[in-house]
Amino acid sequence: MVLWSLVPGALLVVIVVYLCLPGLLRQRGPQEPPLDKGTVPWLGHAMALRKDMFEFMKHMWTKHGDVFTVQLGGQYFTFVMDPLSFGPILKDTQRKLDFSKYAEELVLKIFGYYAKGEKKQNIHSTSTKHLMGHDLEDLNKVMVDTLSLIMLGPKSRSLDASCWREDGLFHFCYNTMFKAGYLSLFGSTKDKEQDLLQAEEIFTHFLRFDHLFPKFLYSLLGPREWLEMGRLQRFFPKMLSMKHNQKEGISNWISSLRQFLREQGVAPHMQDKFNFMILWASQGNTGPATFWALLFLLKHPEAMQAVREEATQVLGGARLEAGQSFPLQPTALRCTPVLDSVMEETLRLRAAPTLCRVVCEDYILKMASGKEYLIRRGDMMALFPYLSVHMDPDIHPEPTAFKYDRFLNPDGSRKVDFYKAGKKIHHYSMPWGSGVSICPGRFFALSEMKLFVLLMVRYFDLELVDPDIPVAPVNPKRWGFGIMHPNHEVRFRYRLQPAE
């Protein structure tokens, strides 16, 4: 009896030794980058990274230089901080760095979805096809109609132009963009009011999922939060299931993806999980990004004026008539260099993804300085371009300042020439990732955001409830996950501009 009581303790010791021993024994080898394992076995620096990745990365960069390896939860990540050395990593002609393996593990953990290699390639190519060119223009037309439905009401012009409405700017932008994107992509019914109610319900659950998302990835959820996350992981596939949702106007992109999965014999329950993944990928960042764009415009009157003048040029000067939808032609998005610069600057300041690759074979990292480092097989190669590129004062002078014309040349054309250490740099802004991991839906996402901002500044009067309130700080728990969220809500007022 006493012997059996010792078994659980012995098993625990074996597990701890199994997890921690490789980390305890690992030492920096010849030609390898500086190694920093932290003080906690196995965990290493995971808690410090989770607390504030930006401050942690600044500290490691100052301490170790442009290349360093850190232990994070039993895994070793080599971060490269010199953007002039990104090229070989992102191109990877040796095929020793694998993005798909890392992405597969994340998608399986978050959405429960798994696809074989050939499926992923076809999904990527299908997405690229339908989210560019003429297909994108068709989708933009639907998006304009859907934004009209949400922003003006089912009967159009239901907003009273004589009354101001007050809301949280983050909630307003996220709510509007999510519902517009959801209905434009996944279809609607003839009952528009019911569609809006269903979209609102899904958005409410999506916000909860989004709140738990960072802690879930770090495996830091409490018992009740784990139960809540499990419920949400079941809720979304059910709500997006073709079995329960026979709608009209499903976008060509979603229809093509679903057809491909059926032809490949993917199980129906896995197709539902795929829908959940697509919903997250398409709607998780656009709302937060438009929040920052409008907030920066509201805090910088000269930028707001420049965008409004451009919006008037492409949309015309007439006010909306009663019962009229927004009269915006998607081709107008080709003629907005000022707004393009505003969005690029917004993404530079608030998009903070981490780009990761699995090292499949021992890899020789060749730096622009001429130095070479050996990266071990099984480790992770990682880039954090927000710190190493977006906040580099050599590339972007006054990097923390919002400059709406930063990406404009004096003649009004797009500026693409940026330099570091006197050398022209290709990767001067990386909000969408780069290389094989670049977001295939970036053109659609950017179109969505531009449409919304154009309509807001052209047809609505906007003002902050407190004009003197500073720009909201970011939530440090969300570094590395895409568009940052504000640490607190910002109240604003809006009204439809009165008809003349």
UniProtKB/TrEMBL annotation:
<keyword id="KW-0408">Iron</keyword>
<dbReference type="InterPro" id="IPR036396">
    <property type="entry name" value="Cyt_P450_sf"/>
</dbReference>
<dbReference type="InterPro" id="IPR001128">
    <property type="entry name" value="Cyt_P450"/>
</dbReference>
<keyword id="KW-0472">Membrane</keyword>
<comment type="similarity">
    <text>Belongs to the cytochrome P450 family.</text>
</comment>
<keyword id="KW-0812">Transmembrane</keyword>
<dbReference type="GO" id="GO:0005506">
    <property type="term" value="F:iron ion binding"/>
</dbReference>
<dbReference type="GO" id="GO:0008397">
    <property type="term" value="F:sterol 12-alpha-hydroxylase activity"/>
</dbReference>
<dbReference type="InterPro" id="IPR024204">
    <property type="entry name" value="Cyt_P450_CYP7A1-type"/>
</dbReference>
<feature type="binding site" description="axial binding residue">
    <location>
        <position position="439"/>
    </location>
    <ligand>
        <name>heme</name>
    </ligand>
</feature>
<keyword id="KW-0443">Lipid metabolism</keyword>
<feature type="binding site">
    <location>
        <position position="285"/>
    </location>
    <ligand>
        <name>substrate</name>
    </ligand>
</feature>
<keyword id="KW-0256">Endoplasmic reticulum</keyword>
<dbReference type="Pfam" id="PF00067">
    <property type="entry name" value="p450"/>
</dbReference>
<feature type="binding site">
    <location>
        <position position="109"/>
    </location>
    <ligand>
        <name>substrate</name>
    </ligand>
</feature>
<protein>
    <submittedName>
        <fullName>Cytochrome P450 family 8 subfamily B member 1</fullName>
    </submittedName>
</protein>
<keyword id="KW-0349">Heme</keyword>
<feature type="transmembrane region" description="Helical">
    <location>
        <begin position="6"/>
        <end position="25"/>
    </location>
</feature>
<dbReference type="InterPro" id="IPR002403">
    <property type="entry name" value="Cyt_P450_E_grp-IV"/>
</dbReference>
<keyword id="KW-0479">Metal-binding</keyword>
<dbReference type="GO" id="GO:0020037">
    <property type="term" value="F:heme binding"/>
</dbReference>
<dbReference type="GO" id="GO:0006629">
    <property type="term" value="P:lipid metabolic process"/>
</dbReference>
<keyword id="KW-1133">Transmembrane helix</keyword>
<dbReference type="GO" id="GO:0005789">
    <property type="term" value="C:endoplasmic reticulum membrane"/>
</dbReference>
<keyword id="KW-0444">Lipid biosynthesis</keyword>
